[in-house]
Amino acid sequence: MATELTIAPPREQIVVGWPSALLATAIVGLALVRMVVAAASGLTDDEAYYRLWALAPALSYYDHPPMVAWLIAAGRWTFGDNPLGIRLAATLTSLIGPFVLWRTAAILFGRQIAERATWIALAMPLLAVGGVIITPDTPSAFFWGLSGWALAELYISRNANWWLAVGVLAGLGLLSKYTNLFVGAGIALWIALLPANWRQLKCWQLWLGGALAFVLALPVLIWNFEHEWASFAKQFGRVVPHEAATSRFLLEFAGAYLGLASPFIAGLSLWGLWITLRTAVVSRSQPHLILAALIVPLLGYLLVHAVHERAQPNWAAPLYPALAICAALALSDSSVGRARHLYRAALAVGFALCALLYVHAVYPIVRGPGIGDPTSQMRGWSQFAKDVERAREANGAKWIATSSYATTGQLAFQLKSGPPVMQLTERIRYLHLPPANDAVTRSPALFVDLARSGLPATFPQRFRSVVPLGTLSRTYRGTVMATYVVYLLADPIGPVLQR
User: Fold this and answer.
1) How far apart are CA 126 and CA 458, in angstroms?
2) Counting runs of H as helices and runs of E as strands, what totals does the chain give?
3) Confidence band of 238 (pLDDT split at 50, 70, 90)
């Protein structure tokens, strides 16, 4: 029998139904647009690397938990080993996620806030990009949002069985990215800050939900135990400051948010966050406390981290939907006329930026050497792989060697029916793959990697023959994207693929 809680609002606040027809149509339409962009644009370096994970799904991996690999494997099985198949999960979460956000916001703050928040989220450039490319941030943000939705359902329904859903969804988040530990921190904060919530500690469903989250995260724990806690050491090692305090990284982080949320939306969301925190503290409002709990722990960590080191903009991705709700709350706090103008401006600028990003991903608006364009990594790989293959055949090499995961992933994707492509360094990244054929790896190899990286200093001690062959350029429509050094490696000394 379900346990009834006494934390819910009056029954008249319970929201049922669906988003407006216009909003629902926009969600579906944008998801279809994202599928087209996903199919028409090349893979990023990280996506090509995560595809290698999906070739042999494992309990976990050196860089991140396994969910992104599992999702890519499912997409490849469904749509094939192509950009759309690899990115299928990203496009599907971009379809489901806005409906989850709408429901969460509607429960907590009503239909008008839910409509505005969902439109605002659709206009956020970072979420627009996240609806196309697939990284660990994709499932991380998705299950973060689902955990918040289940918490809202718990609040509105007075049914403690929702704790089981919270636990399952939080556990799936832990299989996605270590960042999702902050979901648990937020839930603990929500319970601790309001005496009315302390009674939930008596609910057995809360503790069983926590146990379910732990059980779901066991693959990550098992992998780390079997590999000397390597992934934990890498990721949690970032928590320890390595540089003196500076404002530079904070300014970088703020500037990135201004662009990736779009300027008007960024301003509104920060205004709304202040309203949320003030209301949560002064009025002890349950909806505002839930929203704050979904934001504050991770945001607080990122700000502290940015005092000493660079906080990557994508680390904040799970917060964007909740910050969209904050932006909608800010609009409700202003005069009707002013809110209408701000709302329209925010959507217009946001959607314009999203459209530019999509067009640029498929057909670059500007390109050229020296332009800091992150999409340049997506271009020119097909012809470059053909050039590499010709060089390999001309020099009698049996396989292709690299020293970076980016080059390894991109060439392996382009040459998936050709010779093996293997990274000679950081072999812990590839423990999930079957052992390489020793006869192949002891044969001559064509080494290819970025010219700025050069040949690793240890290679002359690992191969008796190291012959420079010049350089190759990866180009797109006549513009050089990157230049790579090429060497012929032969007669290895000792094991070729060292751990």
Assistant:
1) 40
2) 21, 5
3) confident
pLDDT digit string, tens, across residues 139-180 = 999 999 999 999 999 999 989 999 999 999 999 999 999 999
Convert 392-410 to b/e letters by CB count within 10 Å (16 or more is b). Answer: beebebbbbbbbbbbbbbb
Q: Is the pLDDT higher at 310 or at 135? A: 135
Residue 411 phi, psi (nearest 5): -70, -35
pLDDT-derived band at 6, boundaries 50, 70, 90 = very low
Residue 423 CB neighbour total at 10 angstroms: 22
Which backbone phi and psi does 448 adopt, to 5 degrees?
Answer: -135, 125
The tokens for 440 are 């192949």
The CA-based angle 251-257-263, given to 5 degrees, is 105
Find where tokens 């909608």 sit: 328
Write out pLDDT tens, residues 179-198. Answer: 999 999 999 999 998 898 99
Return d(Cα 180, Cα 172) in angstroms, integer.
9
Question: Which residue is listed with tokens 């490696």?
Answer: 489
- Looking at residue 431, the DSSP 8-state letter turns out to be T
What is the β-pairing status of strands 399-402 and 421-423? parallel
pTM for this entry: 0.93
Beta-carbon contacts of residue 457 (< 8 Å; ≥ 6 apart): none
Fill in the DSSP letter of residue 498. Answer: -
| Residue 412 burial (C-beta neighbours within 10 Å; 0-12, 13-18, 19+) | buried
CA dihedral angle for residue 238, residue 241, residue 245, residue 247, rounded to 10 degrees: 10
Q: At what angle do helices 83-109 and 67-79 cross, to 10 degrees?
A: 120
DSSP state of 267: H
Q: At what angle do helices 83-109 and 45-54 cross, to 10 degrees?
A: 100
CA distances from 160 to 6, 150, 163, 291, 315 (A): 10, 11, 6, 19, 31
199/87 Cα distance (integer angstroms): 43
Residue 470's beta-bridge partner residues?
486
Q: What percent of the chain has pLDDT over 90?
A: 80
Name the amino acid, one letter, at 21.
A
pLDDT at 169: 98
